[in-house]
């Protein structure tokens, strides 16, 4: 085949990638679904436009290079310093969770399909990991709870590496009969090689990017890409199947470091990753032979469904026993378990090796892995947003300007109720204090539009200016309105000097003065002792508003509702009228209810009203 023919294939794949991106944005589902469908349609089994077999061994090289860059990019978007509160949960999912998934999947496959135990174990190891190539764009697309999203991303990056090493061990067990000390040595050696090369590469890149003004964005991107490929190749040479772990560690060290040109690297890698993801997913999908899947039959589908609805929840709940995660968050993580490029590519590679050694089971392995990828990707891609809405893990994006005492307390409260919060502050000390509490921060001047963009103002639901400088609060509020088109009810500002209140009001900015508010509250407390209890709720509970959208609640009297004991409905807002809540008042659809409650009681009532 001449070079033009190869270029025709590349152009075809890139064109299909553009189509997939357009469809993904239009239908708001992960691009992986369309890439998978396009690959199957374009492959030899349907239209025969693309035949990946013509690449020969070159396909393995293409897949390896692409996976290395994709995993590095996943690590690059993880900042360990800003997610300390979830490190233990993520670590357990990538260790305990992987082992639970591996063990349960192996047993289910062995007993249901009746295949050889070693082959069942090989399949169990391949699908023990969730795919970062699917999870990362999915999480960013539906904007789930920051804590949940980062747990899923970290899990995807790290357990891909864990799964690859485990699968390599199982493959060696099949072909070379590893046992005893040699088996332990095999795994430990690859862990040491991958982690060491990843750490060394991360430190080399940090030194290079910090070396001076001679390093431009272009130089930084070129050097980083070269170092990623070098790290992967060197790790593979020293210990086969350790390369993914090396680039994962490399990416996380880079993402956690405060180094120049980081944003340039992220932008460049995002484009590169999309191109590589498109190429390998389409090519791998095109390799699929229907006879592999048909040969497995209904039993194969049963295995995959058990993997989704039994094994995955067992792994998640087993790994998060002592965590502070809510049940709905665990349920959402349990549902998000798609398998992606890595198991598909490695299964294909192992199948070719097994066939060359005259060891049966290669075709069954490929068919079962691809069946798992297809079902999990389609199910996750089509239902993830609905499940997220049902479980309430799509929060508001709230940008807080100022990390002082007011900003800190606000951030803690918003985080506690599950919102996505970012704090902007120009004090390095203040930022470090917030980081230690697991709150996301951006260090910089909030009056700088680029700093606000970095903090995510373009997708913020609310901007809350809490600094002790009225000029800053006023300017940030104006920027939010004029430059980023936030509405009046999306901006809230603190006014430190009572005399400046009218300046905010004249610009239609919702604002409050601590001095004025304190005086009003104290005024109401004098001679009205009951006001104390309402103020004290603010320490351990909260007061919030919830819209009645649950059809099972609309049309019922308040006394008929089974509400938590430590909660109380205060007021009902219906159109332009307000009603004091009493037991006989019948709630109507779209009523706005003011709820007061201790601990999480107010949130529980809100869930009942708008379920």
UniProtKB/TrEMBL annotation:
Record domain RCK C-terminal: where: 529-611
UniProt name for this protein: Sodium:proton antiporter
Record keywords: Antiport, Cell membrane, Ion transport, Membrane, NAD, Potassium, Potassium transport, Transmembrane, Transmembrane helix, Transport
Pfam families, per database record: Na_H_Exchanger, TrkA_C, TrkA_N
Primary site of residence: membrane
InterPro entries found in the cross-reference section: Cation/H_exchanger_TM, K_uptake_TrkA, Na+/solute_symporter_sf, NAD(P)-bd_dom_sf, RCK_C, RCK_C_sf, RCK_N
GO terms, biological process: proton transmembrane transport
Subcellular localization: Cell membrane
